[in-house]
Task: structure prediction
Amino acid sequence: MTQAATARSWRQKANPPKSPFVKGGLLKATPSTASDSPNCSQRLDIFRPLWNSPTMKIIADLHTHTLASGHAYSTVNELASAAAQAGLQALALTDHGPALPGGPHRYHFCAMRFIPGTIAGVRIFRGVEANILDENGTLDLDQPVLEELDFVMAGLHENCGFCDSDNDIDLNTRALLAVMENPRVKCISHPGNPLFPLHYEEVAKRGLATGTALEINNSSLSSLSRKGSCDNCAEIARLCARIGTPIMIGSDAHISQGVGVFDDALKLVAEAGIAEKQVINASMERLLSFLGLAE
Result:
C-alpha cells in the first residue's frame, strides 16, 4: 500500500483500523502509577540537556525556531551546530506559520528546499508549527505547501485568528480533533496550554486513532512559556500512557542554547509511565517510519 493510501486509511471513520502506531510494533505503555503532578517549582537548569535518560535517549529535537519566527534568536546553522554538540542525530526546523504576528511569509516554507538535508552531521527536517485558524482544523499554510515539508506540527496560538474562543473547551477540542484528521499533520504542539483548555481524553484517543503524536513540551514545564501548563501536561501524559497515544518530546527552543533540552519532559514521561516505544523521537528508525521518510 502506498503512503498516501495508508494515510487515507487511518482517517476512515467506519470501522477504523488500529492506529499505524500500533501496527508498526510500538507497544502501548502500562498504566501510570504516578499520582502526583510534577512540581514546577523544583526544576533543573533549563540549559543543561538531559537528552539521554536512564530509560530513553531522545535522538531528534522536533520543535525549534529560527530568526524567521520573529521572536527567536538563532540561525539555522546555529541550531544545527547546537544539535550536533548535544549529540542529536536530527533536528526539525519548525518556525511558526504566517498567521502568527511577526512570523514568516508562506514563501519561507516554499523555499525550505534550499536548506541542506544535513548540517554539521545532523539530519535536518524541514517543517512548520502551523497555526490552527478555526474549529474546522484549517491551517495557515495550504495543503500543497504542507505536502513539501518533512514534518508538520499544528497548534493553537494567541492572536492567530483562533483567540476569541473565550476558553471554550468544546470549540478548542473540535478544532484539534479536526486537524488531526489531516494526514500531513504528524504532531499537536503544546496541547497543555491553559489558554486553550481541551477534553484531553478525546484528544489522546484521536491521536492513537489517527497516528498523530501529542507533544510533551519542555518549555511549557520549565516556566519559560505557557505558565500554568504543568498539571495539564501531567494529565495528558497519564492519559497517553494508559491509551497508548504516540508522544513527541520537544524543547521548543527559541535560541540555540535551548536545543536538546528535555529534562523536565523526560521526568514527566517517566513519572507518567509512558513507554519508550511510544516516543516517536527516541529512535531514528521509528521516527523515519512515523514521518514516512526514507533513511
Q: What stands out?
A: Residues 1-20, 22-52 have pLDDT under 50 and may be disordered. The chain is about 30% helix and 10% strand. The beta strands are 60-61, 90-93, 118-119, 122-131, 151-155, 187-188, 213-217, 247-250. The radius of gyration is 17 Å.
